[in-house]
Amino acid sequence: MIRTLLDAFTARFGPGDAPRLFFAPGRVNLIGEHTDYNGGHVFPCALSLGTWCAARRRSDSTVRLATGNIPRSGVLRHPLGYRARRGSRCWSRYPESVINAFRHAGFQIPTGMDLYYYGNIPSGSGLSSSASMEVVTGAVLRELYGLRVSSVRLAQLGQYAENVYVGVQCGIMDQFASAMGRRAHAIYLDTASLRYEYAPLRLPDSSIVVCNSRVKHSLASSEYNLRRSQCETALAALRTVRDIPALCALTPEEFEALSERIPDPLCRKRARHAVRENARTQQALEALRADRLADFGRLMNESHVSLRDDYEVSCPELDLLTRLAWDTEGVVGSRMTGGGFGGCTVSIVKTEALADFQEKLARVYRERTGLEAEFYTVEAGDGVRRLI
Fold first, then answer.
1. End-to-end distance of the chain based on CA atoms, in angstroms?
2. What does the DSSP 8-state code read for residue 198?
3. Spatial distance between the Cα atoms of 321 and 67, rounded to a whole number of angstroms
């Protein structure tokens, strides 16, 4: 892989100084969905899938970008500080947004650079290909220009880039998992304070299986921003009677006592999900620590129901995959993962049941949708790093 990437870099940009090579992983969130921008807890792990970037400095102020993921794509050339127009769908808006985020934060980027990207995260899967590209770009800038930037700061700058320049009002989880992942561990992160701890994933007779629905509905980005707006409306209503920093500062019991103060029933449903999902995530950590895997699985199932009914970010394909998983012997728990409206489910499956699980879900899903689901048995991996 490394030789292939370096050869591809030279083919795009020509001879010169040897490039440096970096990798940042995608992530799968085990539980704690749509809580990160509501001041709650999340529980992701980094993956071995991710984005590579080969990079070298230039002597001028031009940034050249290329990717191995778009057949017959050429080299993009932009001046340092270039900003794509709002709403652009060009893949380069992610790395260029990170460059601008660094410059906005006061970091000196005195020259341009050559950047070649390749990723093996399936497009539209909800496994955070955009965050991995943002984080790997941040690592490139840190290394090429000798910047004093912690990995937590890399995550924050990646989130800022996506919020301000890309226009998606995501929380910190995806970038944090990509920057801070640890092999064989999940990250229990308090997004309000950025306090975190690593939780060992002890699954001696079970595996984490990601199932890609192969669909991504076009309303994903706009509806994501709408959900955040609805939560902010609910929070503003609650603040008229109680001083709280975020929705997830409330327990489920406290929320139910105050919920009628939210006049819009739709905003009330969104807030209910955030508060209850945060409580489920806290309970999931306790279950994992105590090796109560069945309880962890039950909480995953409850999470999906809440995402489907209260937050309404699931879709028929994800609902079908989770129902099939719940009805399959040996499945501990299953839920949608990621922003929603397509993408993936994540399941914990007993190892001896893996073959039956994949065969059944693939067959029935194909019969009912005409689509071919993809399955990845994944392990928790390390966060962003330089390879050479």
1. 12
2. E
3. 32
Task: Kindly report, residue by residue over 27-78, the tens digit of the pLDDT.
Answer: 999 999 999 999 999 999 999 999 999 999 999 999 999 999 998 889 999 9
> 3-class SS at 232?
helix
125-173 confidence digits (pLDDT tens): 778 899 999 999 999 999 999 999 999 999 999 999 999 998 888 889 9
Q: Give Cβ neighbours of residue 37 (< 8 Å, ≥ 6 apart).
A: 169, 170, 171, 191, 228, 231
Per the CB < 8 A criterion, the answer to whether 237 and 267 are in contact is: yes
Chain center to CA of 270: 20
Q: Give the residue numbers annotated as catalytic, written as ranges.
A: 174
**pLDDT score recorded for residue 87:** 66
Please report which helix (H) or strand (E) contains residue 351, including its range.
Answer: none
Spell out the domains of the chain, with CATH numbers in brackets: 2-200 (3.30.230.10)
**Sign of the CA dihedral 246, 248, 251, 257?**
positive
Whole-angstrom distance, CA of residue 141 vs CA of residue 108: 10
The answer to whether 98 and 134 are in contact (CB under 8 A) is: yes
